[in-house]
From TrEMBL:
Pfam families in the cross-refs: SET
Gene3D superfamilies reported for this sequence: SET domain, Tetratricopeptide repeat domain
UniProt-recorded name of the protein: SET domain-containing protein
Residue ranges constituting the SET domain according to the UniProt record: 407-621
SUPFAM superfamilies xrefs: SET domain (SSF82199), TPR-like (SSF48452)
Length: 829
């Protein structure tokens, strides 16, 4: 079972035994990073009563097998459907289709005044049949009645008119008719911001009467039902035809025109007013569409351009935002206030896209605009970060304690490059371009897109799951939304499309070896001409593959990928993000680099000294798990077998020894000291003294066992006052044994008497940083706390705190200042 949060009373007792008060504990427990930190320490995770744990275990086991069954059934149904031949569509009369098309009580029906307690949404990832790259001129028009079900109609497009309001569960659905009067359901997925929009907003995105073309439409049966529908997975397949006179020429509609739910506005001013109303309600996509419509009426309306720039910034369409604002700057308006607004919006779009030099250029125009000057000062700071790799981590950490934090820092690319190793044995990966020292900063990466559950607080009670047929996992809302967000980012960014093209997307997608690769799109792709049409064709299937392989769980010390926990706890929604350079990093259970999150910004540092050309690896799994668990997890999701030093060392033990070790590690929380000692002896006996183990140098399972022992000693020291001191000493010794098991070289294990050497001498050899530093730092702090609180060994305690700072600094940087911030609640005693 994965770590659960400890029982706070037990933790309080432990902390009390170490000399801390309840306030400190309470304060520390309000910090999510500390809560997670504590929950990762195995002994803590077992604090609750065994009965409680058993109940939880059973519940999770049941849920887990139910999840596996669901995935298997979904996959089987999908494969069965794929294996069947295309068929003619059953005829469903228009009236029957319209009568059966009721607005569901899905998420979109929830208005501000509706109380919705629980919502349920389920969908699939990995069923996208393709996306169109053809223009309408290259395609033949086809009619609904001539389409076959279970078929993507390559080389064809369908012209249709929306004749119903929308309904919305995961996709936005509506009924459409073709010029012959045939009708069918149209289901649109992944349209920007549509997942969580209200039905009213969906109606504004797809108003009744709108004429659409769907390029190379996929006609299919729904997963539950017999009335086929056109499923649009790539929203770039949609073409809005309202203003396509050539194609519409001669097209007539046999039925009377349906009443338009949203009437067209007469002129640019009316569109602007409408857009402003949407803007005030933060209905960005509707506002962008209204401003775009106004600009079709009057392409030079500077207010519409300015307003659209503002809403594009909100949507993350920074290239087009800058373009709109630059157009206004070029108009040389006499109104200085409008000009300043234009400069500010352009500067903001450049700043947010990391184009800091353009911010400086605009600032040098000499307009008296304090906001632009401030942006310019910030741009200078960002440029310094980007060029030097120097960051004020303590301040950044402080600023990222709030939920869903996205700190304002520059990305940094240190001495690393994406390369394909010669010889074809290793896959493409990330390598250092020069020798680096342990702890050196290699990369600071800002996400292509990130999602925190807190971004949509109204959805926190929602039950959302997506069955991922690409890797046979059950994904939660975060993973699905992340894909939507990447699609939204690509809407306006052809360069991102090239990056996605270059990233590994799994076995089902053509391999892309180079990085960066030549842009797939034409060398210059203009800005958005209208908000509802992306500037490129979007390969949504590939985006799904890329996110399924490369998404990271976002969290300070989160060493498990979001999807791994989802597998075990399908409804556990966790922050997640897609990152560019880190996605090229291969896995090792014993990695050469470590990641830390500051909000959604990922910093990667070397865990040991690396020679020029050595590979930068990170762990995809919890390296503290047994060989069996690590292998199973990595193999299932990424389909490879790790051959890092730890895996080689584990493989040098016999399979029987590994099994015995896995059994011994699985300790019920009720075990007493002698039983734990027995387990330790058993675990020790399973390691072979092989050259591989010596090279690897660590025994993670022993860390856990010794840590458990130390923890139980600590508990007992609290209960048996008479022997408290002796028990605390034994607790410290067990913690030291734990640290040695993961490679810390302790030179002074004494807990009393004179300190060896000078009083400030560290009790460890700093020649080698221990592995699993996220477990080591809290353990070292526990040693220091015990030395100072229970044994009055303040000098020793101070030296051990220095050890904790050293370990922490190597993995997260930021030195004493960041350490102090992170562990303040424990250190202020
Ligand atoms: C996140 S990507 C890593 C970068 C990838 N190698 C690339 O070319 O873009 C994960 C994929 O890389 C490969 N991979 C990662 N670590 C590996 C390892 N230790 N051994 C073999 N293949 C590995 C697997 O195919 C895995 O699904």
């Amino acid at each position: 079972m994965a770590a659960s949060l400890p029982d706070v009373t037990d933790l309080a007792r432990l902390v009390g035994a170490m000399g801390f008060g309840p306030e400190q504990l309470q304060q520390a427990m309000t910090d999510p990073s500390f809560r997670r930190l504590v929950s990762q320490i195995p002994a803590f995770s077992d604090l609750s009563s065994s009965t409680y744990e058993d109940i939880l275990d059973d519940a999770f086991d049941q849920e887990f097998s139910q999840t596996l069954r669901m995935i298997e059934q979904a996959k089987a149904a999908h494969l069965r459907e794929q294996s069947l031949p295309p068929v003619k569509s059953p005829q469903v009369p228009r009236s029957a289709l319209l009568a059966g098309f009721t607005r569901s009580s899905g998420p979109a029906s929830a208005t501000k005044d509706t109380v919705v307690t629980m919502q349920w949404r389920q969908t699939y990832i990995g069923v996208v049949p393709g996306y169109s790259t053809k223009t309408l001129d290259e395609l033949e028009r086809i009619d609904i009645n001539n389409m076959l079900v279970r078929k993507r109609h390559e080389g064809a497009y369908i012209m249709c008119r929306i004749i119903s309001q929308t309904r919305h569960i995961v996709s936005v659905e509506m009924i459409v008719e073709d010029p012959l009067g045939a009708t069918c359901l149209l289901s649109i997925y992944r349209y920007p911001t549509a997942l969580d929009c209200t039905v009213e907003q969906a109606d504004m995105m797809f108003p009744i009467g709108t004429i659409l073309a769907v390029r190379e439409p996929y006609y299919k049966f729904p997963s539950n039902g017999e009335v086929p529908l056109i499923r649009v997975d790539a929203p770039s397949d949609l073409v809005f035809l309202d203003r396509h006179p050539v194609l519409l020429n001669g097209v007539t509609w046999p039925t009377p025109g349906p009443l338009r739910s949203i009437g067209p506005a007469d002129n640019a001013v009316t569109w602007k007013d409408r857009g402003n109303r949407y803007f005030k309600r933060k209905e960005w996509i509707c506002a962008a569409s209204a401003f775009s419509e106004g600009l079709l009426q009057d392409p030079t309306d500077h207010r519409l351009l300015l307003n659209r720039a503002a809403v594009y910034i909100e949507l993350g369409w920074l290239r087009s935002a800058a373009h709109d604002a630059e157009r206004v700057i070029a108009m040389d308006l006499e109104d200085a206030q409008l000009l300043r607004k234009a400069v500010y919006r352009a500067a903001k779009a450049y700043y947010l896209s990391g184009r800091y030099d353009d911010v400086r250029r605009l600032s040098s125009l000499g307009l008296q605009c304090p906001e632009v000057q401030q942006l310019c000062r910030n741009a200078d700071r960002r440029l310094r970060e980007r060029n030097s790799g120097q960051y004020d981590w303590a301040t950044i950490y402080g600023a990222t304690r709030a939920a869903a934090s996205r700190p304002d820092v520059a990305a940094y690319r240190g001495p690393v490059a994406v390369q394909i190793p010669k010889g074809g044995v290793r896959p493409r990966g990330l390598f250092v371009t020069r020798a680096v020292k342990a702890g050196e900063l290699l990369i600071v990466s800002k996400p292509i897109a990130s999602y925190f559950p807190e971004d949509t607080p109204s959805k926190q009670d929602e039950l959302f799951r997506s069955i991922n047929l690409l890797n046979d996992t059950m994904n939660n809302r975060s993973h699905y939304v992340l894909i939507d967000l990447v699609v939204q980012r690509m809407w306006d960014d052809p360069d991102l499309a090239s990056v996605i093209q270059a990233m590994y997307a799994g076995e089902s997608f053509p391999a892309a070896n180079g990085y960066p690769i030549a842009p797939a799109a034409p060398s210059f792709v203009g800005p958005l001409s209208h908000s509802r049409t992306p500037c490129i064709d979007i390969d949504v299937g590939r985006v799904e593959g890329v996110c399924s392989i490369n998404a990271f769980g976002v969290g300070d010390i989160d060493f498990t990928d979001a999807a791994s926990e989802q597998q075990e706890y399908p409804n556990l929604d966790k922050p997640t993000g897609l990152y560019e350079l880190p996605s090229f990093c291969n896995h090792a259970c014993l990695p050469s680099a470590d990641r830390t999150f500051f909000g959604d910004v990922m910093a990667i540092r070397a865990t040991r000294d690396l020679k020029a050309g050595e590979e930068v690896t990170m762990t995809y799994c919890d390296s503290a798990q047994t060989y069996q668990k690590r292998t199973e997890f990595v193999q299932k999701k990424w389909r490879f077998a790790c051959d890092c030093l730890l895996c080689k060392a584990d493989l040098s033990d016999s399979p029987a020894a590994r099994s015995r070790r896995a059994e011994a590690v699985d300790m019920p929380s009720s075990l007493g000291i002698s039983a734990i000692k027995q387990r330790i002896a058993q675990i020790k006996s399973t390691y072979t003294d092989s050259p591989e183990r010596r090279r690897c140098g660590i025994k993670p399972e022993l860390f856990h066992a010794y840590h458990r022992l130390g923890f139980v000693y600590s508990k007992e020291s609290h209960v048996t006052h008479r022997l408290a001191r002796a028990k605390v000493e034994l607790c410290i010794i067990a913690f030291m044994d734990a640290l040695e098991a993961v490679g810390l070289v302790i030179t002074d294990r004494s807990v009393s008497g004179p300190v060896k050497g000078p009083s400030s001498a560290l009790p460890v050899d700093m020649i080698r940083v221990p592995s699993l530093s996220h477990l080591c730092t809290p353990t070292v702090i526990q040693i220091a706390s015990a030395l100072s609180g229970a044994l009055d060994q303040d000098v020793r305690a101070r030296n051990w705190i220095k050890v904790a700072i050293w370990i922490e600094n190597t993995s997260t940087g930021g030195g004493e200042a960041l350490f102090e911030q992170k562990y303040r609640s424990f250190l202020n005693t």
